[in-house]
Amino acid sequence: MISALKARWDAFRGSGEAAVTVPPMDGALRPNQLLEDAPLLCAIAAPDDLAVRSGDLLVSSGTEIRRIRADGGTDLVKSFPVEVTAIAASAGGTLAVGLANRTIELVGGKPDGLVLSTLGGRSAVCTTALCFNGEDQLLVAQGSATRPVAEWKRDVMERRATGSVWRVHLSDGKDQALAQDLAWPFGVAPGDGGQTIVSESWRHRLLQVGSGTAPKAVLSDLPGYPARLHRDQATGEYWLALFAPRNQIIEFVQREPEFLKQMMADVDPAFWAAPALKPSATFLEPLQGGAQKHLGMLKPWAPTRSYGLVVRLSSDFRPLGSFHSRADGTRHGVFTCLRFGDHLVAASKGGDAIVELARSAAVRPVPELEFA
Known about the structure:
The chain has helices spanning 2-13, 152-157, 248-254, 257-266; strands at 40-43, 47-53, 56-61, 64-68, 74-79, 84-89, 95-99, 103-107, 115-116, 118-119, 122-123, 127-132, 137-142, 163-169, 175-182, 185-190, 196-200, 205-210, 213-219, 224-231, 238-245, 293-294, 297-298, 308-313, 319-325, 334-340, 343-348, 353-357. The chain is globular and about 55 Å long. The mean pLDDT is 90. 9% of the residues lie in helices and 41% in strands. The strands form 8 sheets. The chain has a 4-stranded antiparallel beta sheet with strand order 1-28-27-26, with no helix packed on it. A 4-stranded antiparallel beta sheet has the order 2-3-4-5, with no helix packed on it. The protein has a 4-stranded antiparallel beta sheet with strand order 6-7-8-9, with no helix packed on it. It comes from Tianweitania sediminis. InterPro entries: 6-blade_b-propeller_TolB-like.
């Protein structure tokens, strides 16, 4: 009752969940060109996820998983009849593959050939992220209980929250729900003390979840939509990818149900006022023309529906620095960033590129304030 009254009061005042406000990128998240200017490691169509398996760097692209060679070329590791939606590798060499046909396949190691098709008795319809916690446990993020990964844009615009996170014991196939009713969990990583860290994309935050405990926000009000996160085993820090920026126009449209309904019914999804993975390329898209360009040039600070952003987080989830590809850049839609040996690599799905980042460049000390 109280929550219903609060929702009505917020809607009347334009506060709380009804507020159309976007946090600025400042401090450790101050914009730069580090992602846009980073050396190209490999050019590949729409790279989605990355994993390190037995010393090899693997990337999922469409229906294939490929190994990236030192010269920037790739070798086919395995292909599937449907799109690959997530991958992860264990220290022992087992590869877990989330597929668009509502299954998760295990390749190599002791569970080789195991296929998971249900979680909690329901179809594994939307596997967005996978992570091994040892050789026997697999952490699984399901973005939605009803929609496949390909329909992410519809899910974010309707602000759905039917996602969940699971722990699967591969030895016997038993699963355990760690959190449910999440707004598109898009990343999962092991935390301290047996906890699991989850990126909840549509609510712009990181959560700490565990069996029998309520989810706890450890980093909130991010300026973009968080995707996958990976823990750096050498330092205990985390690398978080954000695949698109928050935008006041988008968040306004999300709160106007009649306009939203008509837009989704009459307009091609590519032209919705919604987050995007690539920069604007046609006058049919929103935020084009005079809203973005000045004297015929696209400015880096122009309003944009796509962006490239990787954030370095301390072990207690404090932002330490970031890599950016701004409105006038091309390396947008970053879904994954992880450590590979002495390298830090990021996959830009919108930019068709895997780039190598310098970890030291992400350290941005925040100066202490001095008062007269």
